[in-house]
């Protein structure tokens, strides 16, 4: 951790060194401060360039040290602002040479410089808010002065990252280069030696403000509350920017510091920051995958994928084709029906056109001048050229097995065979091939070209190379791959099961869909269970329940209406489906919609009457349920299933489950994920509640507390980072 100095003529080049991302720890900042002081007093130096080692300017303050900062939070931001202020006040021009990333405190440092030169591929952003804090080293005071109030408000409150070409348009940087950035910055420096610096110091620059500022701030706070479900740091950003507008620079800096400090004085804000920082590291942790047999990310190298094939061009297949093409992978898109193929081609082309437009708006056209080529074909034999095949036909075991049998004989012997399924048995599919070690599950989430999560389902025979290749592919696609074990519904959907059942039982007992959804949405979930079910389509679950004989023609005669094999069962969603209410796709479900396919869920008096009549017919007494009861009744069984998943070694650690929920199920990041949330609530409380629920409802087996939960409570509820060591994994210390 150091900063060093070299000179090139009259230009001193200060290099930040703190691998891998040049994070600004207290030590690194002290070192920059020291070298910066030295060059100020060196008469041979006429200009200063600041850059980062290994093609990265800086990823900002060192997040790893936050845990220990505690009440001293002030000190790091204080220090960092000292450097920024020293650079800004320098009588010699200071130029930031930005390669790779300038994020958070890294960009704040660049804002203290008089000029900024960036490589065309560099990414810039004040991302602190996404870690539950906000730019506390002058960023909230300097950025609005540089690029104007509205763009600064957007960047700071959302943590938005922009690429250099967009940064240039915003006025955030002064020059973009496609060549060596440090050389370009030195050249730039030589040209500005001796030029007046006063107008380059952001601390003296007035902010251009529109007349209706108060309305802008208030509207922004309302919008952020909705968008980030009440996360506090976003609101604090607005207050800090308000200070930039209302106060002189020096007072604004003090206000910024006071607001940053307020995070430590509020338990809720502190917990949210901890949760977000945990979520950040959890996403890095899951890339270091491990399996119960001891295989892990170090035991195999991934194979590069040049040509990938997708079978089936339904909604999922189309999305998968798009993300492969966007990653510049050559794609073979196969359908068995000419009409479907044509529809698929049109849909993919349309999505790619939209993506091109978005990329141009984000200044990415320079970098991605082409997508990977796509061949649309009815010819299965063309699959012989693929390094990896993703089968994405509908969920039908017989059909999938038939396809895998064909793949086994058509594809190259070393080709990887993936099945996109949300819950079918990978081993059964692999068993029909002559290469089960190359077969793996890839559970994409819809829309596949947008959702970041990929559940990578290892089968019994999946080799470490196969896992490694698919995890690497997920990174190439810009996704987060999480390795999970093979069981019905895998991790995410399996945990959803008890949650959705509990929500439906609430309707039997007296609640209404909108009431339950409101509680869970206020908690922070992107969608409550009923709005989500309407979006997914109620018919999906109905078909699967009919298939397994829980309802429909296969249901054994004499079955009780509200019981299956001695367990509580609610026929409510089946009845809705029998009435043609499939959700958004039919314009009616748990809610009503303005049109078929409409998105605006409106409470439906029909549903209310229906529930009323149902309760009467089954002589169910309506029970009043508090908001807290709704929350615990729905979330604790989901968490309990998470513990079961860990105990059965289906997920390798709590971070895996939390990453799945944060990225695939709309769990609020400022709540960390269900397992992190359980650790914050306290495991004894979760266990006690589950015990009471189960005692009162012995016919709901998912309420039975998990053995792992009981074990952890018995051990005094160790912190979450120690749970992994309680699992059977051979490599749990990774
Ligand atoms: C409880 C409350 C606590 C509050 C504490 C408050 C403290 C107040 C201090 C105030 C300081 C002033 C204000 C400034 C604040 C900040 O700057 S906060 C940091 C803002 N920066 C970011 O948000 C960037 C985060 N990093 C990234 O987005 C990515 O890592 C990347 C830089 C874009 C690189 O991506 P990629 O190439 O995909 O590599 P990764 O695998 O993600 O990362 C490589 C390793 O680097 C580690 N790492 C990344 N960033 C940081 C960082 N800022 N600090 C420490 N470590 C970082 C990352 O974890 C990886 O390491 P491993 O996990 O070991 O693999």
Automatic annotation (TrEMBL):
Catalysed reactions, as listed in the record: (3E)-hexenoyl-CoA = (2E)-hexenoyl-CoA; (3S)-hydroxydecanoyl-CoA + NAD(+) = 3-oxodecanoyl-CoA + NADH + H(+); (3S)-hydroxyhexadecanoyl-CoA = (2E)-hexadecenoyl-CoA + H2O; (3S)-hydroxyhexadecanedioyl-CoA + NAD(+) = 3-oxohexadecanedioyl-CoA + NADH + H(+)
Organism: Pleurodeles waltl (Iberian ribbed newt)
UniProt subunit comment: Monomer.
EC assignment: 1.1.1.35, 4.2.1.17, 5.3.3.8
Record PROSITE patterns: ENOYL_COA_HYDRATASE
Keywords: Fatty acid metabolism, Isomerase, Lipid metabolism, Lyase, Multifunctional enzyme, NAD, Oxidoreductase, Peroxisome
Keyword Signal set for record: no
Protein name: Peroxisomal bifunctional enzyme
């Amino acid at each position: 951790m150091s900063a060093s100095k070299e000179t090139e003529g009259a230009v001193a080049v200060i290099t930040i060194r703190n691998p891998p991302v040049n994070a600004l720890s207290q030590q690194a900042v002290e070192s920059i401060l020291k070298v910066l002081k030295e060059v100020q007093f060196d008469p041979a130096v006429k200009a200063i360039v600041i850059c980062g080692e290994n093609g990265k300017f800086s990823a900002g303050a060192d997040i790893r040290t936050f845990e220990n900062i505690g009440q001293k939070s002030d000190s790091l931001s204080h220090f960092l602002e000292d450097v920024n202020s020293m650079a800004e006040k320098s009588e010699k021009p200071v130029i930031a040479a930005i390669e790779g990333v300038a994020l958070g405190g890294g960009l704040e440092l660049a804002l203290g410089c008089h000029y900024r030169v960036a490589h065309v591929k560099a990414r810039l952003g004040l991302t602190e808010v996404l870690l539950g804090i906000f730019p506390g080293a002058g960023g909230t005071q300097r950025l609005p002065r540089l690029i104007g109030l509205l763009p600064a408000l957007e960047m700071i409150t959302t943590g938005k990252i922009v690429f250099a070409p967009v940064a240039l348009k915003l006025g955030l940087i002064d020059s973009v280069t496609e060549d060596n950035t440090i050389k370009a910055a030195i050249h730039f420096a030589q040209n500005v030696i001796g030029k007046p610096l006063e107008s380059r110091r952001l601390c003296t620059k007035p902010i251009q403000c529109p007349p209706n500022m108060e309305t802008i701030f208030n509207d922004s706070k309302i919008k952020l509350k909705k968008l980030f479900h009440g996360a506090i740091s976003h609101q604090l950003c607005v207050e800090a920017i308000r200070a930039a507008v209302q106060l002189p620079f020096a007072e604004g800096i003090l206000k910024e510091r006071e607001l940053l400090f307020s995070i430590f004085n509020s338990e809720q804000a502190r917990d949210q920051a901890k949760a977000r920082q945990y979520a950040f590291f959890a996403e890095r942790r899951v890339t270091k995958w491990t399996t119960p047999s001891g295989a892990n990310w170090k035991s195999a190298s991934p194979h590069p994928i040049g040509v990938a094939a997708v079978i089936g061009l339904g909604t999922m297949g189309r999305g998968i084709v798009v993300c492969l093409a966007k990653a510049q992978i050559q794609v073979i898109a196969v359908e068995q029906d000419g009409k479907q193929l044509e529809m698929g081609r049109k849909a993919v082309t349309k999505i790619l056109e939209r993506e091109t437009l978005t990329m141009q708006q984000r200044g990415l056209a320079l970098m991605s001048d082409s997508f990977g080529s796509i061949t649309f074909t009815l010819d299965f034999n063309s699959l012989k050229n693929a390094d990896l095949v993703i089968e994405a036909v509908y969920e039908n075991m017989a059909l999938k097995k038939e396809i895998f049998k064909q793949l086994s004989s058509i594809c190259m012997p070393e080709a990887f065979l993936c099945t996109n399924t949300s819950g079918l048995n990978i081993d059964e599919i692999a068993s029909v091939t002559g290469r089960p070690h190359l077969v793996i599950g890839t559970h994409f989430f819809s829309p596949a070209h947008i959702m970041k999560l990929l559940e990578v389902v290892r089968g019994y025979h999946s080799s470490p190379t196969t896992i490694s290749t698919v995890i690497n592919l997920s990174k190439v696609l810009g996704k987060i791959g999480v390795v999970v074990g093979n069981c019905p519904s895998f991790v995410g959907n399996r945990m959803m099961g008890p949650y959705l059942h509990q929500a439906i039982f609430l309707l039997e007992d007296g609640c209404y869909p909108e009431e339950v959804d409101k509680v869970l949405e206020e908690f922070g979930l992107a969608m409550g269970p009923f709005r989500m079910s309407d979006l997914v389509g109620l018919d999906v679950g109905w078909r699967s329940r009919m298939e397994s004989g829980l309802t429909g023609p296969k249901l054994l005669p004499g079955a009780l209406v509200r019981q299956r094999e001695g367990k509580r069962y609610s026929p409510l969603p089946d009845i809705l489906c029998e009435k043609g209410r499939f959700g958004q796709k039919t314009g009616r479900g748990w809610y009503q919609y303005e049109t078929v396919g409409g998105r605006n869920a409106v409470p439906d008096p029909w549903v209310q009457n229906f529930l009323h009549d149902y309760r009467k017919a089954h002589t169910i007494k309506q029970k009043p349920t508090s908001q807290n009861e709704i929350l615990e009744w729905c979330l604790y069984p989901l968490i309990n299933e998470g513990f079961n998943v860990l105990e059965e070694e289906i997920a390798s650690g709590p971070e895996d489950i939390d990453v799945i929920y944060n990225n695939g199920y709309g769990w609020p990041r400022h709540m960390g994920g269900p397992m992190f949330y359980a650790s914050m609530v306290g495991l004894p409380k979760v266990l006690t509640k589950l015990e009471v629920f189960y005692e009162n409802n012995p016919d709901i087996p998912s309420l039975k507390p998990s053995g792992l939960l009981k074990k952890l409570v018995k051990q005094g509820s160790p912190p979450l980072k120690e749970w992994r060591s309680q699992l059977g994994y051979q490599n749990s210390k990774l």
